[in-house]
Specification:
- This protein has a single domain (6-157, 198-243), classed as Rossmann fold (3-Layer(aba) Sandwich), CATH 3.40.50.
- It is 31% helix and 24% strand.
- It is built from 7 helices and 7 strands.
- The protein has helices at 6-14, 22-31, 50-59, 71-80, 121-136, 164-176, 202-211; strands spanning 40-44, 63-68, 85-88, 104-110, 139-154, 215-224, 233-243.
- It has a 7-stranded mixed β-sheet with strand order 3-2-1-4-5-7-6, sandwiched between helices.
- The longest helix has 16 residues, at 121-136.
- The relative contact order is 0.15.
- Bound molecules: S-adenosylmethionine.
- The site of S-adenosylmethionine (SAM) has 21 residues, from helix 1 and helix 3.
């Protein structure tokens, strides 16, 4: 059975959102002293291509590649960035990635880990780990891997033993068994419908980065308000910049 979730790919074939530009500004600031204009940059799960457009412009880099499991997404990036190489591949299918292994100076993976979902929460976590390891394999020895990921942690002693991200995963699994549409609750971004997502805490993503054989050089979590839900859950936008091992 393929590891790539067909329902997630179908969702991104039909919906493609443009996210805020602030996330990339911070990344560009960290990368500028480390990356020259000849660098090869790849965006794994490129979405609209906005991150690739902004980061390559900020770093003065021309050699850019967009990878995504959604063919519609890849077609949109192709029209937006005609000089970019584009490939419709899944980061969970290593045989599709072999020809790209070890060829990039910078690998960007933004808001993708929580979309690598399996039939259970533990299975999803294994896929996220595998996806990150596969993404890291695209970098040259000593290359840079940037992971941007929304992170969630229960707030307060009474809820700490609970797993709100797990509850959301199972709720979405149940709702998406009856509809493939988005089901917004209290506004568009609070959604219990498609796609199923498996969110992680800062500690969990940090540990995935290290388990992928990467050495972190920068970590940062910017707190984001969830409004009424702030009382029970803490949300942050996390940035991890890490290096792959150099060959001895
Ligand atoms: C939330 S969007 C993020 C898009 C972009 N990185 C950004 O931050 O704006 C998640 C993206 O991951 C892609 N994706 C989901 N599963 C994938 C997989 N197995 N391999 C590659 N891309 C995948 C989706 O098609 C979608 O474009």
């Amino acid at each position: 059975m393929p590891a790539t979730d067909a329902a997630t790919v179908d969702y991104f074939d039909r919906h493609c959102h443009e996210y805020g530009r602030n996330r990339i500004r911070g990344v560009a600031k960290v990368l500028r002293p480390l990356v020259g204009p000849q660098a090869r940059l790849v965006d794994v799960g490129a979405g609209t291509g906005s991150n690739l457009a902004r980061l390559s412009k900020a770093l003065g880099v021309r050699d850019i590649t967009a990878l995504d499991a959604s063919s519609e997404t890849i077609a949109r990036v192709g029209s937006r960035l005609p000089h970019a190489r584009t490939e419709c591949v899944s980061i969970l299918e290593p045989q599709q990635l072999r020809h790209l292994a070890g060829t990039f100076d910078v690998v960007l993976m933004a808001a993708v880990l929580h979309h690598l979902v399996g039939s259970t929460r533990a299975g999803s976590q294994r896929l996220a780990q595998e996806g990150l390891r596969n993404a890291a394999s695209l970098a040259k020895p000593g290359g840079i891997v940037v992971v941007l990921e929304p992170v969630f942690s229960p707030r307060g002693a009474w809820i700490r033993g609970l797993d709100p991200s797990g509850a959301l995963f199972w709720l979405k699994r149940a709702v998406t068994s009856v509809t493939s549409e988005r089901v917004p609750v209290l506004g568009y971004w609070n959604n219990i419908g498609a796609p199923v997502v498996s969110f992680y805490s800062h500690a969990q993503v940090s540990s995935m980065v290290v388990s992928a054989g990467l050495t972190p050089v920068h970590r940062d979590v910017r707190r984001q308000s969830l409004g009424w839900a702030d009382a029970v859950i803490e949300r942050g936008d996390a940035t991890y910049v890490a290096r792959t091992r150099k060959v001895a």
